[in-house]
Amino acid sequence: MQENLAIGILCVLGGGIGAQWLAWRFRLPAIVLLFALGLIYGPGLNLLHPSAAIGRYFRPMVSLAVAFIVFEGGLGLDFRQWRAAGEGVLRLTVVALPINLVLGTLAAHFVGHLHWGASWLFGAIIVVTGPTVVLPLLRHTKLRPRVAAFLRWEAILNDPVGAILATLVLEFLMILGNRHSGMFVAEIVPHLLFATMMGVGCGIFPAVLVRFLSRRDLIPEILRIPIILTLAMSVFAICNFFMEGAGLMAATVFGMALANLHVLGMSELRRIKESLGVLVVSCLFVMLTADLHREVLARLSLPIVAMTLTVLFVVRPVGIFLSTVRSGLSWQERLFVGWIAPRGIVAAAVAGAAGLQLSDAGYPSADLVMPGVFALIATTMILHGFSLRPIARALRLTLSDDPALAIVGASAWSTDLAGVMHHIGCPVVLVDTYAGALAAATRAGIPTLRAELLSDEGIESLEERPADYLIAATPDAIYNGLVCARLAPDFGRQRVFQVSPGVARLDLYRGLSRDSRGRVLGEPAWNFTLFETLFERGWRFRAMPPVPAPSGGAPAVSSGSADGNRLTILTVRKGTAIWICSAEDATPVEPMAGDIDVVMEPPAPPEQTGLA
């Protein structure tokens, strides 16, 4: 038994993370791969059934994991982003939800042939758009900030609200089945209000407490993150004791409160929770899908398929259209948000528990709620996962898919480098805190950003024009290192570079810590002074085809000295990647047809310019 459980855990962890890596490597929707893997493990090969292996602890484990996911999502909900997104977010989270409830119920009854009780439960469950699906999709697509904010806020806020709504509908149906419907006003409504207020209060109070203790140095740094995570799980469990679904609201509010109270140490928590979030989402999707039984899949019928298509092509688009009438959303944004609505883990967990309770209460067709919800989950994950990027691109709601470069520090030579990148069509942004330093780039039409990248505002401003690579090119080596260290978790440590701080300071033991700086741009001798001196002598950046390898087969090596022929800075492969040259490269780049080298060359000799 223990060996089987260990093998199951290994399959879930290894397969889930493997699917995430494949999705990253080949730019595929990770959720689709995880869902397919679970189907193979469970209904396909009948190798893994988590609920049977774990027993009665399976559902509580799933609930705690979902609580962590909505807490993680709450940490990303800053009210400044809500204000930037405008009223569209409020409409999607308040107005659209009841409309989708009614339309989903009608679709379940008249198209899916479910009885009214099961139809209302189905309509309540499908109003959620899970953050477990939406957030990974947003990470892989460069949507414009406002559209991304719409989907992010809707997914995270609707998840706990949808869970509470489904619980409320279930309780009402159970009471109605006992023919005591008068209890709805007398007991259920006060109970709902109490649970809601408790969820909000239990979310805000611990966040204020953490802020109070942190400001008075009453929490040691080593315990800060464990305490916060423990509080998130605790408020979930306490509120769920009073009402199922209220715990999700409390966990979400706790995360939002921490984000908006600006508690110190949140940057470390965000990095850890993002990594844990990937692990939790991977395991949950594989386990929940593997836990499907073949009997559930066998209940899929033409009416359920028709109901699923109705929700996709009628219920969601009509609900979004009605809720956004006379709003500030463009028709492209309304069309896109009306299509993209993948359902996730909360819908699956609620359908499994609530559908079983309704079936035990004797409601007809209640056993069809779970297969209907899972059919919708599978369909939306596949269709929305693969169509999100092309549809967003067709509606011009994405930023460029070409790899983009951010250059920090607007000097004469870095402006010239940015100009060459802009000229060859590579997305680039030149960042500096001083408007005068950016003036020349602005006059040349080069995208610029005046911001301090060590501030929250600067990070948010850079997110509006997301870059894939960064070169810190200011005269201050320590500042360059701070920028690279701050942005490395977002860009990837192999994608942040800085001009050399000096040969002596690159010693891995006595020099600047590798975790506190970026990769070296070019050779160790290529410091800021060298680039500045060469530029004053007339050296300029230009784009050219890759230099062919010499006859010996080894790639040409650029010289870092002032009397060399050229300094090769980077290689651009359109639509694929930017390879920035570094002495810390593991292997040299193999040039391909169509690649573009950006090099720094001395001025041409007089005989080549036609001058005497």
UniProtKB/TrEMBL annotation:
Subcellular localization: Cell membrane
Protein name: Sodium:proton antiporter
A GO cellular component entry from the record: plasma membrane
Xref: SUPFAM superfamilies: NAD(P)-binding Rossmann-fold domains
Residue ranges annotated for the Cation/H+ exchanger transmembrane domain, each copy included: 22-393
GO terms assigned for molecular function: antiporter activity
Entry-linked Gene3D superfamilies: 1.20.1530.20
Transmembrane parts of this sequence: 6-24, 31-51, 57-77, 89-111, 117-138, 150-176, 188-210, 222-243, 249-269, 276-294, 300-323, 335-356, 368-386
Keyword annotations of the record: Antiport, Cell membrane, Ion transport, Membrane, Transmembrane, Transmembrane helix, Transport
Species of origin: Gluconacetobacter asukensis
Stretches assigned to coiled coil: none
Membrane topology category: Multi-pass membrane protein
GO biological process: proton transmembrane transport
